[in-house]
User: Fold this.
Amino acid sequence: MTTGKDNLDLDAIYRPIAAEMRRFEQGFSECLRPAGAFVGELVAHATSAAGKRLRPALLFLSGRAVGEIMEAHVRFALAVEAIHAATLVHDDVLDEASLRRSRPTMNVLWGNEASVLFGDYLFTHAFRIASSAGERRALEIIAEAAVEVCEGELLQIAERGNLQLPEERYREIVAKKTAVLCESACRLGAALAGAAPEMEKALAGYGRGVGMAFQIVDDCLDLIGDERETGKSLGTDLQKGKYTLPIIHFLRADAKAAGLVARAAGDGSHLGELRNALIRSGSMEYAFSAAREHIGDAKASIAAVKAQEIRAALEKLADYVIARRK
Assistant:
């Protein structure tokens, strides 16, 4: 799944759903059904370097929190991950990123045209997979999530370069582009296992909190992370005028911040100066503190989960989101 220390941590966290995760991995590339050699090459690239598999894990853990895992859980885990993979491919094109999971991005290897179309291929296959499960309400959940993901990405584009971007607007973007898919994964897992409405809502709330925190941490790492650790191109948000929570706070806290942000966005040589300023001003800590608050909300949401092993795994997964450095 992942490598190094993070892999050991996630392997331990995912132990209660290890069998389900193996079924997922075995079926992911197969379910995309490449139609020819070229598409097969793209599928192999997209599926061979697995990420954290956070969304399938959230779906399976939420299912186990209230009942048994069914075949429909596996089908929807495949669909959710296909949607997530599609957004990564499209993001790399939009950001002109060159590195993802320590490998050249698809747009570097095959160009923007093939990458955009392959992202569309993943989106459409996600709904083919989901529809095959014969679960109407679950299909509605995943369809609504996909719409919100696209809305979030469009909203972020609309706000590019906005030095007055309100924090509330940033949080709305994060909720739509990232948190909604984590929330939906948890809702799907619970709903497919026959959860009572209040438990489904609680697990969905957990997923939302984890998703919000995950993206905020990601945004922080894009500014202060180590590319060798993160395995992906850094500083792309800033270069594209996508101002994230540390930048938003810094712009409010320092009258000279706008000039430094503009210099760092236009010339990578100023990024180190900006990093130091973000840390010195408390803006980076402000963002991490916001992520920790979301994690606290997520943990509070699952207090009623009776399966102790599953609740412990969910709590550890929430902690991992804050502690991760890639």
In short: The two ends are 14 Å apart (CA to CA). Strands lie at 99-100, 103-104. Residues 197-224 form the longest helix (28 residues). The chain has one domain: 4-323.
